Amino acid sequence: MNEDRRTLVILAVNGLLYFALNQVNAVLAPLSLHLSLDALYLLFAFLYLKTNQGLLIGFLTALFIDAALPVPFGVHTILYFCTLAALLRMRRELRRDNPRHIVLAAFWSNFFIMLGLSLLVGKGLLAQWDFWLRFCSDLAISQLLLIFLVRWWVDAQRQVLLLWDIDVGSELQQF
């Protein structure tokens, strides 16, 4: 039962992040800016949960985002699954207690998700320079914000789990 609560709590936190990020993007829309912090949805599941739980959280979060956005259904699911698969291959080399490793994992994950989403959804716009200018500006701002938020977000998710009497520290020895 503890694993079920853990999955539900992380899904709820991901939902709150999604809605908060939509509100920020609505405020930034007149400035033609869009923040994409997709790596934050996946990072905690990758770092602290079992592989099956992490994949389940990534899958359900991606389905939720796919249902809410006007993109072909399954785009986020494919991108999140590929990102989680790549991160899981590097799980043993990355140290959870090293902030640089966490920031680098989030940085590259977010970069590949944003690039993949742009390539899959913006097929007709790839030859236009203003598409790439907008992509690069959104990427730069998103990555800069991600660098500052990632450590805080992971710690906040751990604190939320501790509020529900769920300790992820006991699972760290299993990897």
Structure overview:
- By secondary structure, the chain is mostly helical.
- The protein has one domain (2-174).
- 73% of the residues lie in helices and 0% in strands.
- Helix 2 (39-48) crosses helix 5 and helix 5 (99-121) crosses helix 6 (129-163).
- It starts with a helix and ends in a 12-residue tail after the last helix.
Layout of helices and strands:
Layout: H1 2-28, H2 39-48, H3 51-68, H4 75-89, H5 99-121, H6 129-163
Helix pairs in contact: 1-3, 2-3, 2-5, 2-6, 3-4, 4-5, 5-6
Features:
single chain, 175 residues, mainly alpha, 6 helices, 0% strand, globular
First-residue to last-residue Cα separation: 21 Å
Separate helix tally: 6
Helix content: over 70%
Q: Any idea what the shape is?
A: globular
Q: Uncertain regions: pLDDT < 50 for 5+ in a row?
A: none
Mean pLDDT: 89
Query: Number of domains in the coordinates?
Result: 1
- For the secondary structure, the number of strands is 0
The chain-level structural class is: mainly alpha
**Rg estimate, integer Å:** 16 Å
